[in-house]
Specification:
The chain contains 11 helices and 11 strands. It is an alpha/beta fold. The chain has 2 domains: 171 residues, NAD(P)-binding Rossmann-like Domain (Rossmann fold, 3-Layer(aba) Sandwich); 126 residues, N-(1-d-carboxylethyl)-l-norvaline Dehydrogenase, domain 2, CATH 1.10.1040.10. An 11-stranded mixed beta sheet has the order 8-9-3-4-2-1-5-6-7-10-11, sandwiched between helices.
């Protein structure tokens, strides 16, 4: 019998995943991460795909207070700012089910590890999703999103990838997720600071050589910190990933810019500012001046717009 999938976070990524899973016949519940003690709802959501096709699903949406079972798979697709509260709520459910963090950023798993979660997975999200209207999303997978166990010595639960994977929103198992987490975090440091500060779409890096030059500075700084953290990364690999995403999401606006425009908090603390914090702990803060400064400017811009 297929596991019930609880998707926590009713934003652009959470709803896109839920629509894909529903169309694949999975047992899916969408949980609002930001509100509680609300009545159950059903929302009709349309997903517009990059090939011009469309998926539609009527999604059951609950809040945490309505969740009693501790079985199945729990996918955290909300902003990582909410992870402390979500970890608290899942701990109270006493779940031993797999928890998949469908979020990008560095050290976002800390709240779960500190509360003793061990059946814990990270997914490096390689897809973009953006609301076109309140009930329609534009969704583009760039590649299959890798999922790996945070504890590299733990047995991998194959059900996790089997149940989450669909042709529309593909996933793939990997054995060493931490290197990929850093690679994507570095790419996101670029997109989530440069694009909001310039007020431009994601395509700027493949269109404008000057923007790509700035990206190279950030990538070089972050690779140095990753290397001192025990991970060997290649600039060319990260550069190619960034350009691939820039081309695939040309015309789309990065989540941080959308958040600033909508007066919402951003996740820049888990990107540029977390790289700066790690650098500081290594005595290398002066080596990430560009990454840190762009992150601080983005955080200030977010604060001034709230």
């Amino acid at each position: 019998m297929a596991a019930r999938i609880h998707v926590i976070g009713a934003g652009a990524i959470g709803k896109a995943l839920a629509v894909c899973l529903a169309n694949a016949g999975r047992d899916i519940i969408l949980i609002r991460g930001s509100k509680d003690d609300q009545p159950d709802e059903v929302e009709s959501i349309r997903l517009n795909l990059s090939d011009g096709s469309m998926l539609q699903a009527n999604l059951k949406i609950k809040t945490f207070s309505a969740i009693k079972e501790a079985d199945g798979i729990f996918v955290v697709a909300s902003k990582s700012l909410a992870n402390e509260g979500i970890a608290d709520k899942l701990q109270k459910l006493a779940i031993n089910a797999p928890v998949v963090l469908l979020q990008n950023g560095l050290n976002i798993e800390r709240p779960f590890l500190s509360k003793g979660f061990r059946n814990l997975y990270r997914c490096v999200l390689l897809a973009t999703s953006q609301f076109e209207t309140t009930d329609a999303l534009r969704f583009r997978p760039v590649a299959a999103s890798p999922i790996g166990s945070i504890d590299s010595e733990a047995a991998f639960n194959e059900v996790v990838v089997d149940q989450l994977h669909t042709n529309w929103f593909p996933f793939i198992r990997v054995d060493h997720i931490h290197k990929m987490v850093w690679q994507k975090a570095i790419v996101n440091c670029v997109f989530n600071s440069v694009c909001p500060l310039l007020e431009v779409d994601n395509g700027v890096f493949h269109r404008e050589p000057a923007a790509m030059q700035l990206a190279d500075y950030i990538i070089e700084e972050c690779i140095l910190i990753a290397d001192h953290s025990g991970l060997s990364l290649r600039l060319e690999d990260i550069r190619n990933t960034l350009l691939s995403i820039s081309r695939a999401s040309d015309g789309q606006f990065i989540s941080t810019l959308q958040d600033i425009r909508n007066h919402r908090p951003t996740e820049i603390e888990t990107l540029n500012l977390e790289v700066a914090a790690i650098a500081r702990s290594l005595g290398l803060e002066d080596k990430v001046a560009i990454t840190r400064t762009l992150g601080e400017l983005t955080a200030l811009k977010s604060y001034l717009n709230r």
